Amino acid sequence: MSRRPNSGSRDEGQASVFVVAITAAVLACIALVWDAGGMLATRGQAGTIAAEAARAGAQQLDLAAFRATGERELAPAEAARTARSYLARSGATGTVAVEEARITVTARLDYESRLLPIGARTAQARATAAARAPD
């Protein structure tokens, strides 16, 4: 008479449920890390765009005021227009504020979640940078 080993055991399939649960958890962690990294990269890109837009705007000096007083002030309309144009060319949205010799730019970029299907699929990365008129 041949006997199968462990023929009275009832634990068939239990390891499979455990493997499926652990695999799902590991995949969820990988997706979270991937999307968090993508969001951080997008935030860095927004910071770079804000800084470059502020620098571009800070180059727009009010030459008439400089010739009259020797003070370096920005041409507010030109500085704001240049910074907004840089934002648009970079694919970002944002705000621009000009005060005397200083321009402040806030850039916003959208990040769409690639792997996480839970909750909001789009997040917004935002960064602010300022620049002064060159001395």
Automatic annotation (TrEMBL):
The keyword Transmembrane helix applies. The chain crosses the membrane at residues 15-34. Keywords: Membrane, Transmembrane, Transmembrane helix. The keyword Transmembrane helix applies. Residues 13-60 form the Putative Flp pilus-assembly TadG-like N-terminal domain. PROSITE patterns: PROKAR_LIPOPROTEIN. This is Putative Flp pilus-assembly TadG-like N-terminal domain-containing protein. It comes from Streptomonospora salina.
